Amino acid sequence: MNAPHEGTLFMPLAQRARDARSSAIREILKVTLQADVISFAGGLPAPETFPVEALRDGFDRVLREVGPASLQYSTTEGHPALREWIAARETARGIPTEADEVLVVSGSQQGLDLVAKAFIDEGAPILVESPSYLGALQAFGLLAPEFRNIPTDADGLLPQAIDAELARGARFAYVMPNFQNPSGRTLTAERRLLLAAAAREHDFWLVEDDPYGELWYREQPPQSLRAFAPERTIRLGSFSKILSPGLRIGFVVAPRAMIEILIRLKQATDLHTATLSQRAAFEVLNSTLMAEHLPAIRARYAAQCAVMLEALEQHFPRDALWTRPSGGMFIWVELPDTINGAVVDTTMLLARAIERRIAFVPGEPFFAGEPKRNCLRLSFVTVPPARIRTGIAMLGELLRESQG
Distance (Å, rounded) from C-alpha 19 to C-alpha 369? Predict the structure, then answer.
């Protein structure tokens, strides 16, 4: 080990700390905080959708009626009334669920961290979609698994590709079946059934990450993977996209034995999720607000998605491909591999786009293995329609310039 430079603090870091990398998206967001940048980069919900007044009333009511209890330590499992509410909602969707099958976590990202700690030893195989959610790849990657990619097509992952060789020794498959981040794709009911069958045949768990499932535009997506393989599915959900990410409230639904394991791991992490936030969130969720609030969010995002799709048709190259999501927050674009003999690299393209005050996320960080460098992710939910049209037109112009 090299001696530290004079005047610097020696830090004997663990290997996982030395290997940790900052999120590519977070680094891009630092650039896009300037008001003149049209940013399609962030996976942030539109702040105009936050129910500020309802949350203020919820916090006031909790502090007024149960102030000391709401400011005290609480149970690791989560606020009982909130767990009951989550279980009732799952049951109403056709999957009978008890409150003791629910764990409230500090954002669904903590759920990913707990799952990683529960399942992953160094070198342990895990299955991921290609592309997959960057935050999950980061959470899992800290524990040094062997990533194995599940092939995908225009309709999402291909469960029939999970054969004995791919699945050998796999601890779990991480999937985002509804309006996937980054692709926006939704897995059909038929493929969910086949995925559940593959999990049983090859004896691995399913980790279903569903932060966007409430954001459907015209019709609800198919049932949760819990409907097809309840005994081996861990479902992660979040209130970040329908209430506020600042609350940091997510949840895990899983068999009781698995919930008990995750509870022990959470106790060693943060003891419990913030008591006051849980109680205030329950007040809002349990009110009549959601009946109006959710449809309004869906309508807003559907309209902005339609604007972006129309702009892509008008301004992007004819040989480019993009998804047409039926919900969620993202569109995935695949450009030609080469333009005029030059290899397309959207990371390099981003640098030129930022010079013109536009931002997106290159596709590279969403791949656990060899990345595809000709892809990019666009988010439309925080950008007004007029700026969506302007930004896509400018990106299209940049691509035409690249074609020469």
Answer: 16
The single-letter DSSP state of residue 364 is: G
Token output for 152: 């995908």
What single-letter amino acid sits at 220?
Answer: Q
- Are 137 and 274 contained in the same domain? yes
Per-residue DSSP letters for 79-130? -HHHHHHHHHHHHHTT----GGGEEEESSHHHHHHHHHHHHPPTT-EEEEES
162 inside domain? yes
Same domain, 259 and 359: no
The pLDDT tens digits of the residues spanning 224-233 come to 999 999 999 9
Of 209, 211, 249, nearest to 107 (Cα)?
A: 249
Quote the pTM value. 0.94
Task: Write out the residue range of the structural domain in which residue 362 sits.
Answer: 15-50+291-403
288, 309, 337: which is the final residue of a domain? 288
In a domain, 381, yes or no: yes
End-to-end, the C-alpha distance of the chain in Å comes to: 50
Q: Which of 268, 288, 308 is the last residue of a domain?
A: 288
d(C-alpha 162, C-alpha 388), whole Å: 39
pLDDT in tens, 135-194: 999 999 999 999 999 999 999 999 999 999 999 999 999 999 999 999 999 999 999 999
- What is d(CA 362, CA 182) in angstroms, rounded to the nearest whole number? 10
Question: What total number of domains does the chain contain?
Answer: 2
- Do 176 and 277 have their domain in common? yes
The H-or-E segment that residue 333 falls in is strand 330-334
Q: Are residues 127 and 276 in the same domain?
A: yes
Q: How many of the other CB atoms lie within 10 Å of CB of 219?
A: 8
Q: Average pLDDT, stretch 42-71? A: 96
pLDDT in tens, 331-359: 999 998 877 777 889 999 999 999 999 99
Do the domain assignments include residue 10?
A: no
